Amino acid sequence: MDIDIKILGPGCKKCLEVCDIVRMVAKEHGLPVQIEKIGNTDRIAEFGVLLTPALVIDGDVKCSGRVPSPAEVLTWLKKTGGREDRSN
Amino acid sequence: MQPITTIQPLQAAPPPAPPLATGTKLRYLLIGLVGVGLWYAIYSQLHRLAELLAFSLLGLKPGSHLGEAVLFFFYDTPKVLMLLTLIVFAVGILRSFFTPERTRKILAGKRESIGNVLAALLGIVTPFCSCSAVPLFIGFVTAGVPLGVTFSFLISAPMVNEIAIVLLYGLLGWKVAAIYLGTGLLIAIVAGWTIGRLHMEHGIEDWVRDMHINAAHIPDEKLTWNDRFNHGKTAVRDIVGKVWIYVVAGIAVGAGIHGFVPEGFMASIMGKDAWWSVPVAVVIGIPMYSNAAGIVPVVEALLGKGAALGTVLAFMMSVIALSLPEIVILRKVLKPRLIAVFIGVVGTGIMLVGYLFNSII
């Protein structure tokens, strides 16, 4: 099943950066992801996030208020997806 | 209001550092010291370099209109940019210790008066961006931070920031910077406290109060000094990369005014004797939106030509603290009456500061 990714943020530059990084990492390592961008502030607040951009993987808020590094994203994706690195 | 989210206990003392950590800490300390030394060596030579460039290299006459304008530009631009880089880097590292989650933990359940003071102070060092104002407001209020205390934070965070302070210091000296810092904090404290006294909790939109927030358990990241240095670097890249163009443009305009516009030009409109200029400056400034980097060079130019300090400070504060975009964003969570009270209280505070400084300086 695809890993459920939500990116919270009203659509500023940093939110797009997070989105690009997740896409890139997922593609590079052949991890199937389903990305949803959430720009609505009430929904963002429901996640209990105080600063955007925030990254939610399988319902867990992984980081907020900053752009994570590709290496961090990879560890989160692997851990949550429980998959092995399939790149050769 | 009942706190809905579970507040995690403050993080316990960090686990004993691995033997490597002391070494890296020392290394970063050394790098930092050498960096600051180098920075200062260049910084202290800027005026000489600017004179060399303007008078020896370009052959302009010292004391001439053009000569003075060019010297001003060559000296102030690198000076302000160097100050900005150093401070933004330092504040970037400082901010890695103060996440909004930690600030909320500190403020939740605090009594009003002390809470207002703490909130205003934490507003300086907690990372904040006005695009996050709504989630932050909801997160604070639902976690049991009193409404007035939340407002103290929301007023201080954008208004009293390192960019404004550095630019004021670099262009107008430490006294003006200190006045701005002091009165900015005072406005945030008193305005927040006043809103708290007015018991405006019914002014929060109902859906916010009925909200059930998933307890946000963002892992409290354990940062190494390496991470904190990277925070500083990112801050410099983000902030200086964004504002340098405003600074250069502002100083260029300032240099032109410095050399060519007659002294006392602004005195009749924005001078001390024009009593009406303070409220007019605030009313014009409230809907305007600009960051500190764009507004301070303008402030300097106005001051240089006879505008009164109080009037100019009031203008600057109202531009930075209140803006139409922010009001539109906050309208999502606040009913119109509370918005009106917010603008009224903050606007009045800014006006009082304006009058105060016009009368004592």
What would a concise description of this structure say?
The complex is a heterodimer of chains A (88) and B (361). With 88 residues, chain A is an alpha+beta fold.
Description:
The complex is a heterodimer of chains A (88) and B (361). Chain A is an alpha+beta fold. Helix content of chain A is 39%, strand content 24%. In chain A, strands 2-1-3-4 form a 4-stranded mixed sheet. In chain A, helix 1 (13-28) packs across helix 3. Chain A is globular and about 35 Å long. The two termini of chain A are 21 Å apart. By secondary structure, chain B is an all-alpha fold. Chain B has one domain. Helix content of chain B is 72%, strand content 0%. Chain B contains 17 helices and no strands. Chain B is flat. Residues 1-19 of chain B have low confidence and may be disordered. Chains A and B meet through helix 2 and strand 4 of A and helix 4 and helix 6 of B.
Work out the largest interface and the residue count of each chain: A-B, 20 and 29 residues
- Total count of helical runs of at least 4 residues of chain B: 17
Poorly predicted segments of chain B: 1-19
**Into how many domains do the coordinates of chain A divide?**
1
Strand content of chain A: 15-25%
CATH class of chain A: Alpha Beta
- What is the mean predicted local confidence, pLDDT of chain B? 82
Shape of chain A: globular
Tell me the name of the CATH homologous superfamily of chain A.
Answer: Glutaredoxin
Q: Structural class of the secondary elements of chain B?
A: mainly alpha
Number of strands of chain B: 0
**Average of pLDDT of chain A:** 81
C-alpha Rg of chain A, in Å?
12 Å
Helix/strand class of chain A: alpha+beta
CATH fold topology of chain A:
Glutaredoxin
What is the percentage of strand-forming residues of chain B? under 5%
Give the low-pLDDT segments of chain A: 83-88
Helical percentage of chain A: 25-40%
